[in-house]
Amino acid sequence: MKIPKPTELHPLIAELETKRNALHAKKTAKVAEAAAIRSRVQESPSNGNAAENKVRAILGEPLLPDSAPDMPRLEALLLELNTLNTALGQLDSKIQKERNIGSRLVCEATRPEVTKRAKAFANALLAFHAAHLEYDRYFDEIENTGTNVSSLNRVFLTHIGSPRDPCGGYHYSLRDFVDAGIISRSDMPQVIR
To answer: In CA terms, which of 14, 91, 122, 131 is 20 to 30 Å from 137?
Structure first.
């Protein structure tokens, strides 16, 4: 089964992300312009080119693109950046909300396969528990005859714990499957319930 992406099941996420990317591009350009103005202001602030364009117009020369004086332009840029940051914050919040919706849609679409695999996993763990219990029982039977079993290289799965421990790894792992509704409590072996 191909796992869908949240954006495939909820296209509004992609639309909002496209809008956010456009706003970030706009913000980046404004930040660069503000940095250039700040650098220029430290050396020699510009008063804009309105006066120069008036002279050019009188002389019949082509006009330069209008540029505002540095300080008012910088103040305007900072206000625009503040507005863009506010818009980006609100847009990020909307995107997160829509991603959560998309994630729920993916979870609903994949739930049957997840349940199937969880049941297989739980059954494998139950079978593993039974095999572990039988393995330990057989070793205990050998030891009960007075035999030193060290040459048999008995394996102890200490990270999982004893298959008889009602507070061990098997108990908590199988209980998680019960809590998730994958198996019922009666499916858990009596020894670890």
So the answer is: 122
